[in-house]
Design brief:
This protein has 430 residues and is of the alpha/beta class. It is built from 16 helices and twelve strands.
Length: 430
């Protein structure tokens, strides 16, 4: 069972690198194999929505972190094996790759060495001390002990093989027992991912959240921060049935978007069963996570930014209408329209969200006046990121506080930058 999300959310959280920024994926990616990289990307695109699955994965990774497990296979060995096993795949041009005699020989010897190392790993390696992996470990031991693979273990790598032996092993490993070999490789890739994330967890002191059942309405994060920042300011926020909606205010540059990304990234990563950048965290499993931080105009259909926002809200309404438990985040809701419409729309929508008490919402807004009408809803909480004035210079604490800000420093910043003076001088010069 996978958590529901979409490309907008994946882009908002900057999970994958682009030309102008790195990605959260890169922080967790310490894999040694191409297959491991692909599997890790799949996990990032498909978080889990089952308490059992999330807890099981987190337990395995935490155990490997505690054991300080290292990936036991040489990357070059896996490269040779992957090339060997991919021989029957069609390339982008529709042609099938054909391996030469030397490549087949290298592939066979690499595969024999890998299978020996694999048997050693599952029989005597750290996996023995990870109870959550017992079922998978037993499956691997069963595969490796099948009579069909006995000739592999009669060899002692790295021995020289005759041409006839290479041909026989080639047929055995790539054709007759291909499914078994691919299953073993998939397990190796899985271990590559888990060990990679375990090592990253130890290096960065990430924590493993406590997972609560779906529908229990728990979301508490202490000391959350964005994992890409060198000197982050941690923040804490608790939500639940008694506070299922958070209305967040604060001036530009006060750190709203950074906090929103930090918090929602933790929620998303926690659903992967991965450790998160926080001091502690507990959450109930959700059906979906959707964020709206950087919503692009859809110029292809002639849609304005406001209409793109409306379509986004409509999509959230449809998801919520099915009774699903969803985490929803809107940064600067209805910024694409005039202040009056934005005010009315923000109040109406936030009140409607407050009716859906099995979901959780964070709405950030510059329209602080909306808070007066929202206070009548007991399950709406109010938080802000403050601006402190040092004379005429605004200073930002980046630390979340309860309440509603009355900070209005836009004109001070405009004057500090001398924009009006520049315009006046330009007029005189004209």
């Amino acid at each position: 069972m996978y958590l529901q999300t979409d490309d907008q959310t994946i882009g908002d959280l900057r999970l994958f690198s682009k030309r102008d920024h790195s990605g959260i994926y890169d922080i967790y990616n310490n894999t040694s194999t191409r297959g491991g990289e692909e599997m890790l990307e799949h996990m990032f695109r498909n978080p889990l929505s089952s308490q059992e699955a999330i807890t099981n994965r987190a337990t395995i990774i935490a155990s490997l972190a505690q054991l300080n497990t290292c990936f036991p296979f040489r990357a070059s060995l896996l490269d040779s094996v992957e090339k060997f096993m991919a021989d029957d795949k069609e390339g982008k041009d529709g042609q099938r790759a054909v391996l030469g005699e030397k490549e087949i020989s290298n592939g066979v010897t690499s595969m024999i060495e890998l299978l020996h190392a694999m048997r050693e790993f599952v029989q005597k390696g750290d996996l023995v001390n990870v109870p959550a992996l017992n079922n998978e470990r037993e499956k691997m031991l069963s595969l490796l002990s099948t009579p069909a693979l006995k000739p592999v273990f009669n060899e002692k790598p790295p021995g020289r093989l005759s041409y006839a032996a290479v041909t026989a092993f080639d047929l055995l490993l790539r054709v007759r027992e291909r499914d078994k070999i691919l299953s073993i490789l998939q397990f190796i890739y899985l271990m590559d991912v888990y060990i990679s994330v375990a090592q990253v967890s130890s290096k960065h002191n990430f924590i493993f959240p406590t997972v609560h059942p779906k529908g229990s309405n728990v979301l508490r994060v202490e000391g959350v921060y964005h994992p890409e920042l060198k000197n982050p300011v941690p923040n804490s926020l608790a939500m639940g049935a008694e506070k299922s909606v958070v209305f967040l205010t604060g001036a530009n540059m006060a750190g709203k978007s950074t906090f929103l990304r930090s918090f929602s990234t933790a929620v998303y990563i926690a659903h992967m069963g991965f450790p998160v950048a926080a001091g502690s965290m507990e959450f109930s499993v959700m059906d979906g996570v959707y964020t709206t931080i950087n919503l692009p105009d859809n110029l292809g259909i002639g849609a304005s930014h406001f209409y793109a926002e409306v379509l986004r809200v409509k999509k959230m309404a449809a998801e919520l209408g099915t009774g699903k438990s969803i985490f929803v985040l809107f940064d600067e809701l209805f910024r694409g329209t005039n202040v009056k419409d934005a005010h009315e729309g923000t109040v109406a929508l936030t009140k409607a969200f407050a009716q859906k008490k099995n979901s959780m919402f964070i709405i950030s807004s510059h329209i602080v006046e909306a808070a007066d009408e929202l206070k009548e809803k007991s399950n709406i909480g109010f938080h802000y990121l403050p601006t402190r004035m040092n004379g005429t210079v605004p200073e930002y604490t980046y630390t979340l506080e309860e309440g509603i800000t009355d900070d209005r420093h836009g004109m001070i910043i405009i004057r500090n930058e001398g924009i009006l003076d520049i315009l006046k001088r330009g007029k005189k010069n004209g």
